[in-house]
User: What shape does this take?
Amino acid sequence: MNLVQVTGFKLQVAGYENALNPELGTRNPKRVIMDPKGLSKMANRPIKTGKLDLGLLSKILEKYTLVDPRVVVGPKIGEDAAVIDGGKGNYWVFTADPITFTTEEIGYYGVVVNLNDIATRGATPKWFLATLLFPEQGTDVGFIKKIFRQIHDACRQFGVSFVGGHTEITPGISKVILSGHMIGEVKKGRLVTTSGARPGDLLLLIKGVCIEGTSIIAREKEPELLRRGIPLSLIKRAKRFMFNPGIEVLQASRIACDSVRVHAMHDPTEGGLVNGIVEMALASDNEIETDLDRVFVYEESRVLCQAFGLDPLGVIASGALLLTISPLDLSKLQKALERASIPAQVIGKIRKGKARVFATGTGKGRREIKPFDRDEILKIYE
Assistant: This one.
């Protein structure tokens, strides 16, 4: 697989306003100003497929979240996992993520996307639970066993225990749905959050984009890609993207945390790299400037996204890792990642200022960007 630079993709503009949460000691998105009046008007509007609008989600979390004193990190825009004080020098880390875009290798996907959220806390994933909803049509014992085997194999690969969940045949659905839950542990001195980004930090992209989206497109749309003239050899390589370069970030996060002091990490998923960077700005209450000419897109990703008219910067991006460090630690981290043959690139810098993102590059000058309102990959299903 080859890496190419991304150019010429359309981005959008908006503003944000965040506040400090003194109780948790972390910067917490208090308000997302995309369209303040428009949020109230959303009440009776249909909601698009995909993640909730960041402004709407922020309002809901503000109103309905309950926390107790042991909650170190609760539900906040951009934070990948909750953190609970487990006593005795450890934090427990909790996350939940469903798999809804694809059914092929769904067991592996379910384990890894949840494992990634634990990894971005600098934590070790330990225990996995899964709720599996199977459709009435097309489900037999062999299919159920296949998915359990995928979960078992993935857990064994990453040293995770599969400890429970729920399984049923569900009316009204057309494909299997997996909702995963992962629990991990981290020493209190090694906890990393999305909100930890500091002014002056460098923003690094580990691996490239859009790894997960590339695999999904190849697996879900092979006949159509062949009709569009995409070589079968490229489609086969793209299908393997979930394993190589891989949708997991556990190895990269461990290397980073063992090598230098990582201030913030984030796992860009739905909405792709752009949404991931915006979420980091919101969580840390800082301005981020990113050079899009320094963002790498795999050649296979570029070809498949182009076939469906997708912007790879907005395609689901598991496998990539965003992190911030002091410039003084850059050389040490780069050498550690190079030894493991993991590519990394500085793509931006954290600045003191309003929680927003400015982009340069692609020949368009400096401009403010906003998140995609839905993941670009949803277009392949339309």
